[in-house]
């Protein structure tokens, strides 16, 4: 997960006392400024206390009292109002926000502003064009913050510092198109859990995990939904963007200890954790996306479940409902497919169908121990069973063996990944003894056979 950082501004070596404005960099502790303001306050309070009672203890009490008033300045303003103002500024493509009316000060409100900006940039959808930075402008004599200067990604900013509005609008149109592709597949018969899982699986199927620092879009819903690459921040923003479009309430949960972020969604009166990132399997051999594998371990989970499964360093958020902590879908390792009135899926005992993810009874269509269950067309599916590739016919409720890696690679290789696209099957096989990995393509006939 990428946390909020600020631009790197250099000091010009001028005397703080005679400067009227400074640009604040959150990465750098402003020792000189802090010491100047501290000495100024101490002198003021010391003389005041001598005048009142000439006692050192009174000076300390006055200092503490005055500092407390300054520290609570942000509490007296409206936290949400400032956050909304910053969000609106981004959505109106502004490069700065006037905050002079909020009575904010560098020595007491810097961390609160950082918290607000972190929420805005990391936890607000549809402002993908920011560059995860900001700077503060303040008055040198009092330390009062007057402006927040907003950062934009280089592809959305001109050399003169102005914003490329046309480029942002073009990118936003692409993003909305991808969001609509997913939401348009939501059917009237789906309940809230069905919708939540459908979006979960769509993103997991279509996205490859990537955390290259050179790819700024990996941090955004644009990177995940348009470029199909992203890290946990991108996954969580993408899931939130689609779910919000469907009318769901969505929260973000982060753990600095884990360097990770995920979502919480509200279904009925309860909140549940959803981590699409960790449910999108990554190949342990090469760190790349594992095609054909979609986990549901972290779909609709309580806080206790998350902690019991390795999550830590996040605040208890009151997500206490355990109704889905032991649900059958926790063991389903491939994406579900919705056929209009039924869900079709595979677990470790067979291929099943059921009307809803969270209710009703499942009907077994074929008893088989397989994995990498993927769709070929409206009636047929592929799946693997160790070193065998099968095609399953939904209408006929039977399966046929269509390929095995044994002849080409030997008995020690088994199929670990499967993906169908444009008349070809992409596969990955692994040697159980030597941990060697091979991959290849299979041409597919109209019937689905090799």
Brief account:
31% of the residues lie in helices and 27% in strands. The chain is built from twelve helices and 23 strands. Helix 1 crosses helix 2, helix 4 crosses helix 5 and helix 7 runs antiparallel to helix 9.
Q: Give me the side-by-side strand order of the main sheet.
A: 1-3-4-2
Instruction: Using the CA coordinates, give the radius of gyration.
Output: 28 Å
The portion of residues forming beta strands comes to 25-35%
Uncertain parts: 1-73
**Percent range of helical residues:** 25-40%
Blueprint of the fold:
Elements: E1 21-24, H1 31-52, H2 56-71, H3 73-76, H4 79-91, E2 96-98, H5 106-122, E3 130-139, E4 145-152, H6 165-183, H7 192-206, E5 208-209, H8 221-225, E6 229-230, H9 232-245, E7 250-255, E8 260-267, E9 270-274, H10 276-279, E10 280-282, E11 289-294, E12 299-301, H11 303-308, E13 337-338, E14 343-347, E15 350-354, E16 363-367, E17 371-375, E18 380-384, E19 389-393, E20 398-403, H12 406-409, E21 413-421, E22 424-431, E23 437-443
Parallel strand pairs: 5-6
Antiparallel strand pairs: 1-3, 2-4, 3-4, 7-8, 8-9, 9-12, 10-11, 13-14, 14-15, 15-16, 17-18, 18-19, 19-20, 21-22, 22-23
Helix pairs in contact: 1-2, 4-5, 7-9
């Amino acid at each position: 997960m990428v946390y909020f950082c600020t631009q790197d501004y250099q000091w010009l070596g001028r005397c703080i006392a005679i400067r009227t404005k400074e640009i604040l960099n959150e990465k750098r502790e402003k020792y000189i400024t802090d010491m100047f303001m501290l000495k100024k306050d101490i002198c003021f309070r010391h003389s005041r206390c001598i005048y009142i009672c000439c006692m050192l203890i009174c000076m300390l009490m006055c200092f503490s009292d005055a500092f407390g008033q300054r520290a609570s300045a942000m509490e007296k303003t409206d936290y949400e109002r400032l956050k909304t103002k910053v969000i609106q500024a981004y959505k109106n493509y502004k490069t700065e926000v006037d905050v002079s009316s909020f009575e904010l000060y560098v020595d007491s409100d810097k961390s609160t502003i950082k918290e607000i900006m972190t929420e805005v940039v990391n936890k607000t959808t549809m402002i993908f064009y920011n560059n995860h930075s900001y700077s503060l402008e303040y008055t040198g004599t009092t330390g009062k913050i007057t402006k927040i200067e907003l950062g934009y990604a280089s592809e959305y900013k001109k050399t003169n510092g102005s914003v490329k509005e046309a480029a942002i609008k073009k990118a936003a149109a692409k993003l909305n198109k991808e969001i609509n592709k997913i939401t348009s597949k939501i059917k009237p018969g789906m309940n809230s859990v069905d919708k939540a899982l459908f979006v979960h699986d769509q993103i997991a199927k279509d996205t490859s995990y990537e955390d290259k620092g050179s790819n700024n879009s990996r941090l955004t819903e644009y990177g995940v939904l348009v470029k199909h690459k992203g890290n946990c921040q991108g996954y969580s923003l993408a899931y939130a963007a689609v779910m919000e479009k469907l009318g769901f309430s969505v929260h973000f949960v982060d753990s600095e200890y884990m360097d990770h972020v995920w979502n919480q969604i509200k279904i009925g009166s309860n909140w549940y954790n959803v981590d699409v990132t960790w449910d999108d399997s990554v190949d342990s051999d090469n760190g790349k996306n594992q095609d054909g594998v979609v986990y549901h371990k972290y779909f609709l989970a309580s806080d206790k479940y998350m902690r019991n499964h390795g999550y830590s360093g996040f605040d208890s958020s009151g997500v206490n409902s355990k109704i889905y902590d032991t649900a059958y879908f926790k063991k389903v390792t491939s994406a579900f497919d919705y056929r209009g009135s039924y869900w079709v899926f595979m677990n470790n005992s067979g291929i099943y169908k059921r009307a809803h993810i969270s209710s009703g009874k499942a009907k077994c269509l074929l008893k088989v121990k397989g994995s990498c269950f993927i769709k070929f067309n409206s009636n047929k599916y592929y799946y693997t069973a160790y070193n065998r590739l099968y095609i399953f016919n939904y209408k006929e409720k039977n399966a046929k063996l269509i390929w095995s890696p044994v002849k080409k690679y030997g008995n020690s290789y088994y199929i670990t990944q499967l993906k169908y696209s444009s008349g070809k099957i992409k596969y990955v096989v692994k040697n159980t003894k030597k941990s060697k990995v091979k991959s290849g393509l299979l041409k597919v006939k109209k019937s689905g056979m090799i």
